[in-house]
């Protein structure tokens, strides 16, 4: 499955969190979080997806693609 947010920063704000709070949850610096957001690798999208699910976020900013396993 592919998880990709249209805007990770928008998702963080929508959850009512700051980048500092997210960085602390991920045990990274704000600079590292910003770097990961800019690199747009799948791992940052999965991390934000996990945080959003924990905080009960709505998936209107998310693109999900299911791979056909057959």
Question: How does this model look, in words?
Answer:
- With 70 residues, the protein is mainly alpha-helical.
- The protein has one domain: 434 Repressor (Amino-terminal Domain).
- 54% of the residues lie in helices and 11% in strands.
- It contains four helices and two strands; from the N terminus they run βααααβ.
- The protein has a two-stranded antiparallel sheet.
- It is globular.
List keywords for this structure.
mainly alpha, 70 residues, single chain, 54% helix, two-stranded antiparallel sheet, globular, 434 Repressor (Amino-terminal Domain)
Proper CATH architecture: Orthogonal Bundle
How many helices in DSSP terms? 4
> What's the quaternary structure here?
single chain
Helical percentage: 40-55%
Instruction: Return the average pLDDT rounded to an integer.
Output: 86
- Quickly count the domains: 1
For the sheet with most strands, the description reads: 2 strands, antiparallel
SS class: mainly alpha
Helices and strands, in N-to-C order? EHHHHE
Broad CATH class: Mainly Alpha
Shape: globular
Strand and helix layout:
Layout: E1 2-5, H1 8-14, H2 19-26, H3 30-39, H4 42-54, E2 62-65
Antiparallel strand pairs: 1-2
Helix pairs in contact: 2-3
Sum this structure up briefly.
This protein is mainly alpha-helical. The protein is built from four helices and two strands. Helix 2 (19-26) packs across helix 3.
């Amino acid at each position: 499955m592919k998880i990709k947010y249209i805007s990770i920063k928008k998702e963080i704000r929508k959850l009512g969190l700051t980048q500092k709070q997210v960085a602390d949850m991920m045990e990274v610096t704000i600079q590292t979080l910003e770097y990961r957001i800019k690199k747009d690798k799948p791992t940052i999208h999965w991390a934000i997806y996990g945080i959003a699910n924990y905080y009960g976020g709505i998936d209107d900013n998310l693109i999900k693609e299911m791979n056909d396993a057959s």
